[in-house]
């Protein structure tokens, strides 16, 4: 008797585990895109799934990148050139492999660091037997709303972290640039003023006899 | 309803399996792909990957290839290597950060048979989970025997802890940013003064020198 109930329970949980593997989680990655390079990512999506692609250039050059999103048949769903940050939501109209590419081919020597977040579908539920029809108790629904709020807090934190990384990278670039250029300029100043004097002296040393002759 | 031991065992087994529907990309034979994770300290990161080799004859990707390995190298923010290991064609690597900052996860293939790569393409499915996403809640529920509400509370606590760590890290980074800005400010201030002084001094020296030169040459 126990074994029958136990087996059914195990079977349900195994089925749920299969479902869990079927739930596609969100992928969030930061990678470096060298100059004149293109990097593509692919994902298999089932029809009707709501997906969001969000990207941001963290460091490098003018902080822009080309992005292109194609569906399973190659139809371009989203295409933007030299964008710094964008977010695109779509519902999958076809089954198949969707492809999105980031291109830095317009840049000759700056490599960029790109962050992207590709959310496919919903996050998996916490419990195996939870179906949306059964009502949650007040405590449970409070927990669910707190969970959603905290997820958006984490999302804002990520965006803030990226903006801060961008600002900090610009500030560090500025600092090194100011240091080098100041030293360089001081050196050039000295060199130019000394060479001016030397050059002027050389003019007068050679033409001393000619000027006196002209004078008299 | 609490999870039974064999059920939990099977779920844990599935959780360990490599991602079947994760994001994938193509990598060349000697190509090294690096990903950056900027994380606070004491944060756990779990990475799972699965590789598929392009079969020229069949014109598709094979399911699994023996003899094909991926070398995983992880560097901490001080560019010190914290993990450098060879895994098989499917692998799972995990590490916990001890210093906050940018960690770099690099993958490159290390195939023993060069002929395998004649087609030139290797498909890598990758899934990297950071912080509270690494927690396996069904496993925790089974291990600590928690009720539904307790498990939900545990999830919220983990999330809040992650937020707190990120805020601490943010404070540390903001301080670095402020130090960089103040250093730039100091540079600009002192170098401007120095350059103005050099300008004035060299101007005076030029005039004095030329005046004495012309007087010597009897032109003035």
Automatic annotation (TrEMBL), chain A:
Principal subcellular localization: membrane
Pfam families per record: EMP24_GP25L
Protein task: Potential role in vesicular protein trafficking, mainly in the early secretory pathway. Appears to play a role in the biosynthesis of secreted cargo including processing and post-translational modifications.
Locations listed in the record: Cytoplasmic vesicle, COPI-coated vesicle membrane; Cytoplasmic vesicle, COPII-coated vesicle membrane; Endoplasmic reticulum membrane; Endoplasmic reticulum-Golgi intermediate compartment membrane
Similarity comment: Belongs to the EMP24/GP25L family.
Signal peptide as annotated in the record: 1-26
Membrane disposition: Single-pass type I membrane protein
Residues spanning the membrane: 178-200
Protein name: Transmembrane emp24 domain-containing protein 7
Keyword Nucleotidyltransferase carried by entry: no
Listed GO biological process terms: protein transport
Keywords of this entry: Cytoplasmic vesicle, Endoplasmic reticulum, Glycoprotein, Golgi apparatus, Membrane, Protein transport, Signal, Transmembrane, Transmembrane helix, Transport
InterPro entries, per database record: Emp24-like (IPR015720), GOLD_dom (IPR009038), GOLD_dom_sf (IPR036598)
GO cellular component: COPI-coated vesicle membrane; endoplasmic reticulum membrane; endoplasmic reticulum-Golgi intermediate compartment membrane; ER to Golgi transport vesicle membrane; Golgi apparatus
Gene behind this protein: LOC120063032
Lineage: Eukaryota, Metazoa, Chordata, Craniata, Vertebrata
Residue ranges of domain GOLD in the record: 38-120
TrEMBL record, chain B:
Chain ranges of the GOLD domain: 32-130
Top-rank taxon: Eukaryota
Alphabetized UniProt keyword annotations: Endoplasmic reticulum, Membrane, Signal, Transmembrane, Transmembrane helix
Cellular component, GO, one term: endoplasmic reticulum membrane
Keyword Transmembrane: yes
Residues annotated as signal peptide: 1-22
Membrane topology designation: Single-pass type I membrane protein
Location (main, coarse): endoplasmic reticulum
Membrane-spanning parts: 188-207
Subcellular location: Endoplasmic reticulum membrane; Membrane
Similarity comment text for this entry: Belongs to the EMP24/GP25L family.
Protein name in UniProt: Transmembrane emp24 domain-containing protein 4-like
Originating organism: Salvelinus namaycush
């Amino acid at each position: 008797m126990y074994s029958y109930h136990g087996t059914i329970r195990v079977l349900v949980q195994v089925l749920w585990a299969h479902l869990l593997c079927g739930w596609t989680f969100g992928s969030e990655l930061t990678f470096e895109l060298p100059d004149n390079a293109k990097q593509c990512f692919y994902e298999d999506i089932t029809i009707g799934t709501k997906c969001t692609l969000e990207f941001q250039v963290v460091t490098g050059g003018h902080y822009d990148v080309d992005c292109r999103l194609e569906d399973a048949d190659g139809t371009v769903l989203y295409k933007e050139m030299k964008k710094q940050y964008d977010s695109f939501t779509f519902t999958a109209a076809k089954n198949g492999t969707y492809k999105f590419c980031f291109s830095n081919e317009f840049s000759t020597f700056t490599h960029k660091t790109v962050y992207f977040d590709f959310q496919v579908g919903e996050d998996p539920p916490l419990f195996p037997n939870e179906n949306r029809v059964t009502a949650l108790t007040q405590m449970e629904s409070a927990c669910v709303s707190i969970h959603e709020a905290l997820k958006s807090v984490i999302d804002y934190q990520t965006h803030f972290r990226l903006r801060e990384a961008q600002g900090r990278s610009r500030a560090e670039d500025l600092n090194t640039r100011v240091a080098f250029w100041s030293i360089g300029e001081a050196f050039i100043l000295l060199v130019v003023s000394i060479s001016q004097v030397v050059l002027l002296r050389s003019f007068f040393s050679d033409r001393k006899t000619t000027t006196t002759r002209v004078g008299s | 309803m609490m999870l039974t031991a064999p059920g939990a065992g099977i779920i844990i087994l599935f959780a360990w399996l490599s991602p079947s529907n994760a994001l994938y990309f193509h990598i060349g034979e000697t190509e090294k792909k690096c990903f950056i994770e900027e994380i606070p300290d004491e944060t756990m990161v779990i990475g799972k990957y699965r590789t598929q080799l392009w079969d020229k004859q069949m014109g598709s990707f094979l399911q699994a290839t023996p003899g094909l390995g991926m070398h995983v190298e992880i560097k901490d923010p001080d560019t010190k290597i914290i993990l450098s290991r060879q895994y098989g064609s499917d692998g799972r690597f995990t590490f916990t950060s001890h210093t906050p900052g940018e960690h770099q996860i690099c993958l490159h293939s290390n195939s023993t048979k060069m002929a395998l790569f004649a087609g030139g393409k290797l498909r890598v499915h990758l899934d990297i989970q950071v912080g509270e996403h690494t927690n396996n809640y069904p496993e925790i529920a089974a291990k600590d025997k928690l009720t539904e509400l307790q498990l939900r509370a545990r999830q919220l606590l983990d999330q809040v802890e992650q937020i707190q760590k990120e805020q601490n890290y943010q404070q540390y980074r903001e301080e670095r940013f402020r130090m960089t800005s103040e250093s730039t400010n100091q540079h600009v201030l002192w170098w401007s003064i120095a350059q103005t002084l050099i300008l004035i001094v060299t101007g005076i020296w030029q005039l004095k020198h030329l005046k004495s030169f012309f007087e010597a040459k009897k032109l003035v």
